[in-house]
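Can anyone check this?
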Amino acid sequence: MVVQHIPIPWISLVSSSPLRLLVIAHILALEGKLYSLVFGSLSLG
């Protein structure tokens, strides 16, 4: 399938639910980094 190797247009990504899952995953990852920084500073402090 050649179509699978072609990057999906942003319009189709925005109109689909997988993008929302990616956004949620990125948000959780950022929050995890923030929490690790906060807990790391608290443990060091």
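Reply from J.R.: I decoded it. The longest helix spans residues 17-44.
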